[in-house]
Amino acid sequence: MASSARVRALLWVAVMLPVLCAAFSEEKPTDQRVLVLLDDLALKSSHSIFFKSLTSRGYELDFKLADDSKLALQRYGEYLYDALILFAPSVEGQLGGNLDVAAILDFVDSGHDLILAADAHTSDVIRDIATECGVDFDEDTEAVVVDHINFAVQSESDHSLIVGDKLIDADVILGKDGIKGPVLFRGIAHSVNAASDLVVTVLSASPSAFSATPNAVMTAPPALTGTSISLVSVVQARNNARILISGSLDLFSDKFFKSPVQKFGSSSKSASGNEQLALELSKWTFHERGHLKAVNVHHQKVGEKDEPAMYRITDQLEYSVEIHEWTGKEWRPYQADDVQVQFYMMSPYVLKTMDHNGKGLYHTSFQVPDVYGVFQFKVEYKKLGYTSLTLSKQIPVRPFRHNEYERFIKAAYPYYGGAFSMMTGFFVFGIVFLYHK
Amino acid sequence: MAGGGTANDVRTLVSSLRSAYSATPVRLKIIDLYVLYALITAFVQVAYMGMVGTFPFNAFLSGVLSCVGTAVLAVCLRMQVNKENKEFKDLPPERAFADFVLCNVVLHLVIMNFLG
C-alpha cells in the first residue's frame, strides 16, 4: 500500500513538474520564487522593509548582483524563477551571465512578473527593457523630475524630492483602503506609450512638474511636463504577466518608507505612503490581487440539468459560471455586478449582465434568438487591474423541426377552409363533369 | 347624347356577349363556373389576409395557391375538351380528364403538406 502511494506521488510530481516550474499558475499559485538583481548588495539592507515583507508573504528571494557572471533565468528550458525584481538601474552594458533584454522579455512573454525600478543614472539596458514594456523613460539621461511647488521640504535648493498624490483610482491595484499618505519620489520621468492600452499610470506627477537637469540652465523646454509625466506605471500583458515600472528606486527604500513628509507650504508633517504603495503594488504585481479564474461553465435549458449538444431557436436557456479571485492564500468568490455574457455569432445577438449569488456563481437566463447557426457563449471580462477573462463555448442552434411548428392555428382556419373547399369542389366538379350528358 | 350612346354600346356589347356565350356547350359552362368559384375563394382569402395579417403565412400561401392551382388546371381542362380548339383535336376528352385528375391529386397532396 505504502509503495503504491509513493509511486502515485512520484507520478504526480512527474506530471505536475511543468506546472510547478511555470509562472503564476492557477493550480499552485503559492509557489513563488523571485530573483532579485541588485547593483550593490547594500540595497539589501537599505530596502530591507520591502524585501522583508515579500519574504514574510512567502516568497523565496534570491539576491544576485546584476553583473554576476552566473546569472540565469532558466536551466534546461525550465524557468528557475516565477518573478524578477530588477533593482539595478545603473548596470552598464550587459547584464551578467546569459541575461539580456531578450531573455528578460522572453521571461515576461512566458507569463512571469517583473518589477523594475530606475533612478537618475539609468543605463540603456534598463531603458530598453522599459521601452519594450511600453514605457519610455526621458531620453535625457541627466534629467530627473523636478517640481518647484509639490516638493518635500528637505533642503532649500533640492526640488527633485517630490511629493506625489495623483494616484490611479483602482482598488484592485492599490488595495481597497487607498494609499493613506503622500508618496515621496526621487527619480526620472517616463511617458506611457499611447499606442499601448496595456500600460496604466499608477502615480502621475502634478501639473507643475517637469523633467530637467537640476541646477543647470535650461536651454530648451523640457520634453516631459506636467501630468503627462508618469512616475509609476503598471503593465498587464495579454498573457496576464504583470510588470511594475517605477522611475524611482528610492521609492522602495526604508528611508522613504519611514521618513515623515513635509510638503512645501504646509507646516505639518505626515507619514509617507511609500511603504503602503510599494507593498500594495507588489501584491498586485505578484498576483495576490485581481487574478481571476472561471470554472464550472454550465448552460442548460430552463428546467433541465444536462448540457444539451444543441439548442433550438426560441428555447429558454440558463448560463452560469463561477468566478474566483486569488487573494494570496486562497481562491475567494469574486463579486461584481458587471460580468456579461454574450450569445455571439459574428456579432452579439444577446448581451446580458449576469447576477451573482455572493458565492462567485454568476447566472443568467435568456431566450435563444430566432436565428439559427453556430453560436458561442462568450464572456469577455476586461477590467482595469484584473486579469482578463476570455471564455467561449461553441453551441449550434437549429431551426424548428417539421413537427415542431404550431398546428391548427385559429387565425388560419379560413385558409384550411379554402383548401378543403377546393378539394370538395374538385370532387363535386368531377362527378358533375363526368355524368353530365 | 354621347353618354347615352356609350350606355347603348355597353348594352349592345353585353347582350351580344351573352348571346355568343349561350352558344357555348354546357360542359364548358360547368368548367367556367368551377373556375369562378375557385377565384372567388382565393379572393376571399386574400381579403382575409389583408384584415388579420400574414401570420400563418404558409397556411395563407397554401390556401390561396390551392385555389389558383385549381383554377389553372380547370382552364387547362377547358382548353383540351373544347371542340372548337383545333390544337387538341387528337386528344380524347377522357385522356384530358384523367390528366386533370392526376394533376389535382398532386396539387392537393402538396397543399396538404404545406398547410401546416
Q: What would you say this structure looks like, in words?
A:
The complex is a heterodimer of chains A (437) and B (116). Chain A contains 9 helices and 28 strands. With 437 residues, chain A is of the alpha+beta class. Chain A has 3 domains: 264 residues, 3-Layer(aba) Sandwich (Rossmann fold), CATH 3.40.50.880; 108 residues, Immunoglobulin-like, CATH 2.60.40.1930; 30 residues. In chain A, strands 2-1-5-6-16-15-13-10 form an 8-stranded mixed β-sheet, covered by helices on one side. In chain A, strand 27 and strand 28 form a beta hairpin. About 1% of the residues of chain A have low confidence. Chain B has one domain. Chain B starts with a helix and ends with a helix. The model of chain B has no long low-confidence stretch (mean pLDDT 92). Chains A and B meet through helix 9 of A and helix 2, helix 3 and helix 4 of B.
Helix content of chain A: 10-25%
Structurally, how many domains make up the residues of chain A? 3
Q: Flag low-confidence runs of chain A.
A: 17-22
As laid out across the biggest beta sheet of chain A, the strand order is: 2-1-5-6-16-15-13-10
Q: What CATH first level of the largest domain in chain A would be assigned?
A: Alpha Beta
Question: Which features does this protein show?
Answer:
heterodimer, A: alpha+beta, 8-stranded mixed sheet, 5-stranded antiparallel sheet, 28 strands, B: 116 residues, mainly alpha, 83% helix, 0% strand, flat, DAD/Ost2 (chain B), membrane (chain B), transmembrane (chain B), endoplasmic reticulum (chain B)
Write a brief structural summary:
With 437 residues, chain A is α+β, with helices and mostly antiparallel strands. Chain A contains nine helices and 28 strands.
Write the layout of secondary structure elements.
The complex is a heterodimer of chains A (437) and B (116).
Chain A: H1 2-21, E1 33-38, H2 43-46, H3 48-56, E2 60-65, E3 74-75, E4 78-79, E5 83-87, H4 101-109, E6 113-117, H5 124-132, E7 135-137, E8 144-147, E9 162-164, E10 166-167, H6 171-174, E11 183-185, E12 190-192, E13 199-204, E14 209-212, E15 230-236, E16 242-246, H7 254-258, E17 260-261, E18 270-271, H8 274-285, E19 291-301, E20 311-312, E21 316-326, E22 331-333, E23 340-345, E24 347-353, E25 355-356, E26 361-367, E27 373-381, E28 389-398, H9 413-435
Helix pairs in contact in A: 3-8, 4-5
Chain B: H1 2-22, H2 26-52, H3 57-81, H4 93-115
Helix pairs in contact in B: 2-3, 3-4
